[in-house]
Amino acid sequence: MKNQSVINNIDWITVIIYTILVIMGWMNIYSASLPIEETSFFDLSQTYGKQMLFIILAIPLIFVILSMDAKIFEKYSTVFYILGIFSLLGLFAFGKTIKGQTNWYQFGGFGFQPSEFVKTATALVLAKLVSDTQINLKKFKHQLFALSVFCFPILLIMMQPDAGSAMIFLSLIFVLYREGLPSWYLWTGFIGIALFILALVVKPIFLIGFVLLVMIIHFILNTRITRNPIIYGIIFVLITGMVLSVDYVYETVLEPHQKDRINVLIGEDVNMQKEGYNLNQSMIAIGSGSWLGKGYLEGTQTKGGFVPEQHTDYIFTTVGEEWGFVGASVVIFLFVCLFLRIIYLAERQKTKFSRIYGYCVATYLFTHFFVNISMLIKLFPTIGVPLPFFSYGGSSLWAFTIMLYIFIKMDANKVNEW
Amino acid sequence: MRKLFLPGLIVVTAVLLIARLFYLQILDDSFKIKSDNNAIKIVYDYPERGYIYDRNGELLVANQPSYDIMVIPKDIKNLDTLEFCTILNITKEDFIKKIEKAKIYSPRLPSVFLPQLNKMEYAAFQEKIRKYEGFYIQKRSLRDYQVNVGANVFGYITQVNDAIIKKHPYYKSGDLIGMQGVEQTYEEILRGIKGVKYRQRDRFNKDIGPYKEGIYDTIAVQGKDITLTLDVELQKYGEALMKNKRGGIVAIEPRTGEILALVTAPSYDPAILVGRERSKNYTALYNDSISMPLFDRGLLAEYPPGSPFKILTALVGLQEGVIDEKTQFVCNHGFSYGRGSFMRCHCGGGVRDLHVGIYKSCNAYFGNVYKRTIDKFQKPRYGVNAWSGHLKSFGLGNFMGYDLPPGRKGHIPTSNYYDRWYPNGGWRSTTIISNSIGQGEVLMTPIQLANMMATVANEGYYYTPHIIKKIKGQPIDKKFRTKHITTIDKQYFKPIINGLFDVYNLGTAYGSRVEGIEICGKTGTAENFTKINGKRVQLQDHSVFVAFAPRINPKIAIAVLVENGHYGATWAAPITSLMIEKYIKKDTITRVDLERRMMEGSLQAEYDKVVNGFYFEPKDKKKDSKEKTEVTEKNKGDKKTGTQKEDKKDDSQKNNANIKVTATDNKQKPKNK
C-alpha cells in the first residue's frame, strides 16, 4: 500500500531523463572503449562491460532507496556524514594512490571512491542543519556553522589531493545563498576568482588602477549605504594585496600541473605534445564533429584513442565528435531539463529539509556538468570531475544515482508530510 | 530573487556552452583538418611505370626495383649501431646525422633513412632487417635503361617539387614525375594512376583498419607501355658519330612524320640519372653551361639556316611565277643589288639556271629570285607577307606541335617585323636580301630543317613530326595522322629535287656520295655569334647539312648540325651520308675510313677557344685557328690572371673591327637578336 503510493508519486520526468542520460552515457563509453576485435556487449574484461554491470546493479539500489522510509535520511544524516568523514580519513591509511591522488579504496577488481558518497552525506547534513528553525543564515555565527559542514570534507579531500572534488563542495554556497546567506559571499567569491585570473593575464598595475577607478565611481554613485571611506580603503588594500600576491600564489602554492592547466586556458605558449595535449585533442575531437558528427562509432579521434581518459572525464568529447553539435546540444538540453526539474521539485517541497536537499542535488549535478564540459572546450581549467551519469565508473554512477533517488523518494513522499 | 539565481545561472551557462560548441564545431574549420591529420593516414599504391620500346620492338626503358630504408626514430630499440652501419656501408657520423634529420622531420612518422639501395645491398640488409626495430624497407620502382643513348628523347624521372604539387594536386610530396622527353609528354600514360588507401590510425600511429570501411579507397591503374618511332640502332649510330662534337641530328620518315633519330651532342647515359647518384649527376649536367648536355640541340638550336634555305627561296619563286626552271641569272662572283651593296658568292661565277644555282649554291641566283619575288608586289610588305605565308605552310616560324618538349619557334619575319625596325618605312626587297640565302632574319631549328626536307621529299606535304608510334590500347593522336599541305604546288618540287640530287653528283657534297643510294641534299654554313666579356663576337660557322634519300620513294629526311664545324661539307655532309647509309642499308658501312674519321674527329679545340677567350677570326680562318689553338694550350694554366683578361679585351676589340670589314656580305640589314 505504501509502496504503491510511492510508485504513483514518483516524478517520472526526472526518472526518464535520468534513464536516457545513463543509456546515452553507456553508448558513448561503448564507443570510446570499443576494441578493434569484435567482442560481446557484456564482456566484463572491457570497460563498457563493467559499466553495463554498474548500471544493472544500480537498479536494485534504486529499489532499495525507494522502499526505504523517507524519514531515515533526515534522521540518520549525521551518522552518514560521520561515516563519510571516517571513510575519507581511512584513505590516508588504506587508500590506493593513483597518479599522486589517494582517493580510492581497492576491493578486488573494483575501486571505491568515498568522496562521491560524502557529497550526498554532506548534503543531507547541511539540509538538516539549515532546516533547523534555530538557524538564521543572517547571523555570522550560524553562517560559519553552516560553512564548516562542507569545509571539513573539503579540507580532507584537498589533502588527497583532489582539488576537483573539493571544488564541487564549494558550490553548496549557492544553496546557502538560496536559504538566506548574504550575497556578499557570492560576490566576494566571484570577484576573487575574476581578479585571480585577470591578474595572471593583465599586468597588476593596470588591474589595481582599474579596481581603484571602479571603487571611486562606486563611492560617488553610492547613496544608499553609508559612505565610509575607511571601509572602501580596507577593501582596496585587500584587493591590492591579493592582486599582488597572485603571482606568488601562482608560482609557489599551485602544483606544476595546475599551473599548466591555467596556462593552457589563458593561452600561454604551451607544448601541444605535453601539457597542452589533452585539451588540444579534446578540442579536436569536439571541433571536428560539425553539425551531425562523424556518426556513432565512427569518430576517428575516439577510435584512435587520441583523447586520454575518454571514457571517464573526457566522455563528452565522444558525444561532440560522433553526434556533432546537434547531439551535444541535445545532451546539454537534457541536463538542463533535469536541473530545472529538480529545482522546480525542490521549491515544491513541503519541508525545508527536502527543499534544501533538492537544491544540493541540483547544485552538485550542475557544477559537475559545468566544470566537466567547459574544461573540454577551453572555458575552464582542466579539473578532473566526472560528468554525472555519463562518465565511466561505479562509484560515481552509484553515488549520483543514490543522491538523485533519495530526492525522488523524498519528493514522492511529500504527500505524507504535514 | 534568490529562488531564480540558480535556475538563471543554469540557463546562462547552458547557453554559453552551446554557443562555445557552435563556435568550435560549426564556425571553426581547423579542427576537422587537425582531426584528419591525426587519424587518417593515406597510403599510396604506386603502379609500375610503362615500358618504352623502339619502332622495331626493341625494349629501351624498363623498370628495376629499388629499396628505400625507412626509419621511425621513436621505434628504434636495442640497435647494434656498429653492425648496422657496417652492413649499409655508412659511417657512424652519417648514421647519427641521418637519424637526427629524421627526428627533426618527425619522431613518429616514417622518413627515408637511406634511399634507393640496389638488389645486392638490399639482399645483405634484408637478412638482418628483423633485428632492427624501427627500420623497414619500402619498395619502389626506378627506371632501368636498356640502352645508353637517347637520354634527350627519354627525359628523366625526378621527385616532384612544390610548384608541381601546387599546380597538379595529383602529385604528393615524394612522388615521381617524368621530366623532359617522352617521360614528360606521355607522363600520364606511362605513370598510370596510383591507388589510394585511407587508413585509420590510433595515437601510437598504429594502423587500426580502413577508414570508413574503405569507401574512399581506389585501386591503382597500371601505366601503359609505349612504342616510339625511334630506330634505336640509328640513334646509337648518330650519337657515336657526334662524339666529341656539339650539335644535333634529326631524322624523319617523310611518309609518316615519324622521328627516326633525335641526336644531341654532347649527351649523357640516361642511367646516370637513376639511383643514389642521381642528384649529384644531375647537378653536374645542369651546371655545365659550356657544353650544355641538357640542351636538346635538335629542338632548341635556332640558327640562320644558311644555304638549305635556298630550297625554299626557289620554291616560293616558282610558285609566285617570278621564275621558271629555265630562268637564268648571271653571277659576277656575287650579286650587286644596289649602290655599294654586294652579296658575295663562291660558286665560281657565270650564267646560272635553277638547277646549277641549287647544286652550286649560288648566292647571286637566289638573291635575284628573292628580289623578284618581293618586287612582284606593289609594296615590299605585301611581298614579304606572301613569302612568309608560304614558309609558314612548311611549319616554320612557329612551334611544330611535336610530342616532345616544345623546342623553339624559329623565326620567319613578316612586314610588321620590318616596320618595327624601320618605323618610317623605306625598307625594300634589297634591304632584306639576306633572307634569300637563309642568313637574314630567318631562324630555323634542326627539326624544322629536317621537316622541310621531308616536305620536299613528299613534294608538298608533311605530317607533324612525332616520336610516338603506339600506345597500348590507344591510337596515336589524330593530329599526327593529318596531312599538312603546303602552298607550293607539287609540280615545282621536281626541279628542286633534281638540283638537290646533283649536289651529290656535281656540287658541294660530292665527297659524301654513297654507293647505291640516290641522296638529295644541301650543304649549309650557319653564322653564329656569342658574347664574350659583354661584346658580341662571331664564332666559327656551324656546319649544316640537310638531305633525304632515296630520291625515288624517300625513306628518310635528315638535318645535321655540327656546331662550329665550318663548311657544311666538312662535318655535316659526311655524317648525313653515313646516317642515311646506316638506315637504308642496315648492314655494315662500306666507307670505313670516313666513318672512323667522323667518329674520332673532335672539335674540342674549337670549343675551347671560346672558353679561353679566343674565337673565330674571319681573316685567313684556317691558319689563325691553328695558331690560336697553340696559344690556348700555352695559356690554359694562367687563364684567370688579370693580365690575360686585359689581353682578351684587346683581342675582342681587334676582332670586332675585323668582322665589320669582312662580314659585309650578309650584314646589310637590321641585326636580328
UniProtKB/TrEMBL annotation, chain A:
Membrane-spanning intervals of the chain: 12-31, 52-70, 76-94, 144-177, 189-217, 229-250, 323-344, 356-377, 389-408
Gene Ontology MF: a single term: lipid-linked peptidoglycan transporter activity
Primary localization: membrane
Superkingdom of the source species: Bacteria
Coiled coil: none
Location in or out of the cell: Membrane
Membrane topology: Multi-pass membrane protein
A Gene Ontology cellular-component term: cell division site
Keyword Membrane listed: yes
Source organism (scientific name): Flavobacterium cauense R2A-7
Keyword NAD: no
Record keywords: Cell shape, Membrane, Transmembrane, Transmembrane helix
GO annotation, biological process: cell division; regulation of cell shape
Protein name: Rod shape determining protein RodA
Pfam families reported in the protein's UniProt record: FTSW_RODA_SPOVE (PF01098)
From TrEMBL, chain B:
Subcellular localization, as worded in the UniProt entry: Cell membrane; Membrane
Entry keyword set: Carboxypeptidase, Cell inner membrane, Cell membrane, Cell shape, Cell wall biogenesis/degradation, Hydrolase, Membrane, Peptidoglycan synthesis, Protease, Transmembrane, Transmembrane helix
Domain (Penicillin-binding protein transpeptidase): residue spans on this chain: 247-576
Record domain Penicillin-binding protein dimerisation: where: 46-206
Stretches the record annotates as Disordered: 620-673
GO biological process, one term: peptidoglycan biosynthetic process
Molecular function terms from GO: penicillin binding; peptidoglycan L,D-transpeptidase activity; serine-type D-Ala-D-Ala carboxypeptidase activity
A GO CC term attached to the entry: plasma membrane
Protein name: Penicillin-binding protein 2
Transcription regulation is among the record's keywords: no
